[in-house]
Amino acid sequence: MSGDCIHSSTINQVIPSARGCEECLATGSEWLHLRLCRSCGHVGCCDDSPNRHATAHFHATHHPIIEGYDPPEGWGWCYVDRVVVDLPDQTPQRGPIPRYY
């Protein structure tokens, strides 16, 4: 874990909530990349996507750490400390993830 982040206790093994951005799938929106909340398993779209649902999830829940999720990329990000964090593991995908861009 990065020395600049103190939120490692919030990293859980999670089950992804969807096979794409949960909110985009519900509304028919597009996304660029996916982010997985390592507190609860919410799958949201990245900040380069039109709706930025992963960041919106952080603001609503204060869950600090996400994982790059499509495909599993092996890196984490702490929204609070604004640093890349080392994750103890990678979350496997639940199945094929549709691509929109």
Automatic annotation (TrEMBL):
Highest taxon of source: Bacteria
Gene3D superfamilies: Zinc/RING finger domain, C3HC4 (zinc finger)
Domain UBP-type: 3-101
GO molecular function, one term: zinc ion binding
Record SUPFAM superfamilies: RING/U-box
Protein name (database record): UBP-type zinc finger domain-containing protein
Gene source species: Sphingomonas alpina
